[in-house]
Write a structure and sequence with these properties.
The strands form 2 sheets. This protein has a 9-stranded mixed beta sheet with strand order 2-1-4-3-5-6-7-8-11, sandwiched between helices. Strands 9-10 form a two-stranded antiparallel ribbon. The chain is of the alpha/beta class and 302 residues long. The termini are far apart. It has one domain: Alpha/Beta hydrolase fold, catalytic domain (Rossmann fold). It is built from 8 helices and 11 strands. Helix content is 30%, strand content 17%.
Length: 302
């Protein structure tokens, strides 16, 4: 049985690598299965389930890394699979364009609606929806959330990973989800203040802003958040991750950030999250300063 599952996993990886970047691929929602593979929801007979808890991850502009699927699988391993749908949304073909602004435009105008439609096929009235997106993918999850908010009573959680806001666009559109008395909306935004400057160094009014740039192992990197967030699920950077073996930092004071701020991490965590302010000056996660060692200083080892 173990060998069979291993064979299926290998076959899947070979297939997904061939398909994910093919020219005729259309946006699709994949579900994380129990044997560690992802299945296209359009190719399965999923029964609609009201009250379902859903978490979906999506990528940004020209990203070839498999992190969205890996993150969905990692979260699935932390939750009750009977209560949660864990998946990732693939719009690689449309994100593979020369100008990142064009990717954001497609995300805003079309991809968000496609994702919302596919989620609503799974559950007409989900109980909780958590959408995670990086860079231009932040427009996918934001627009999807607005549609879901109009058509359901789901509580909504958005996680923006270094949101990309093209010059001339209004950052207030991101996460501007209509909230009714019977609905909870909360969002967290992890930014890095890297070399992309203003277009990703945005403070979002509809999110709790957290600066994780200073904990990047090495130079501040726009892509660091999609390495860091999965690490907060696993408790460390994955063995195949570029930051494998590096120290993981995820606390600001007594508050732990990343996965810990989601309903997936527990009801108490989520209740604490929704009390954190949005539109704030960024909370900083910093590496703890090492205590001054007089002996090392005197011996010239500092």
């Amino acid at each position: 049985m173990l060998l069979k599952n291993l064979y299926i996993s290998i076959l899947f990886l070979m297939t997904i690598n061939a398909v994910a970047f093919s020219g005729d691929k259309t946006p699709a929602l994949y579900i994380a299965s129990g044997v560690g593979i992802m299945v296209n929801t359009e190719e399965t007979n999923l029964s609609q389930t009201d009250g379902l808890k859903i978490v979906v991850v999506t990528h940004g502009w020209i990203e070839r890394e498999p992190w969205p699927g890996d993150l969905a699988l990692a979260i699935r391993n932390r939750v009750d699979a009977n209560e949660w749908f864990c998946g990732w949304f693939d719009w690689h073909n449309e994100a593979r364009v020369i100008n990142p602004r064009d990717a954001a435009q497609y995300a805003h105008d079309k991809a968000g609606a496609i994702l919302a439609g596919q989620i609503l096929k799974i559950s007409k009235n989900p109980g909780h929806v958590h959408l995670i997106g990086h860079s231009a993918g932040c427009w996918v999850i934001s627009e999807a959330a607005k549609i879901i908010a109009k058509k359901t009573t789901a509580n909504i959680h958005l996680t923006f990973l270094d949101a990309y806001v093209p010059i001339g666009w209004d950052q207030n559109e991101l996460g501007n989800v209509a909230v009714e008395p019977n609905r909870i909306y909360w969002s967290d935004h992890y930014l890095t203040q890297d070399i992309t400057f203003k277009v990703t160094n945005c403070l979002l009014n509809h999110a709790h802003n957290v600066d994780i740039g200073d904990i990047t192992p090495g130079v501040k990197d726009h892509r660091f958040p999609f390495h860091w967030y999965p690490a907060t699920v696993l408790g460390k950077y994955a063995s195949k991750d570029k930051y494998a073996g590096k120290k993981l930092y995820c606390k600001s004071g007594d508050i732990e950030y990343g996965f810990a701020r989601s309903l997936e991490a527990g009801k108490n965590n989520w209740q604490e999250s929704i009390n954190l302010p949005m539109g704030n000056i960024p909370v900083g996660i910093n590496k703890p300063k090492e205590a001054f060692d007089l002996f090392r200083w005197l011996s010239g080892k500092q």
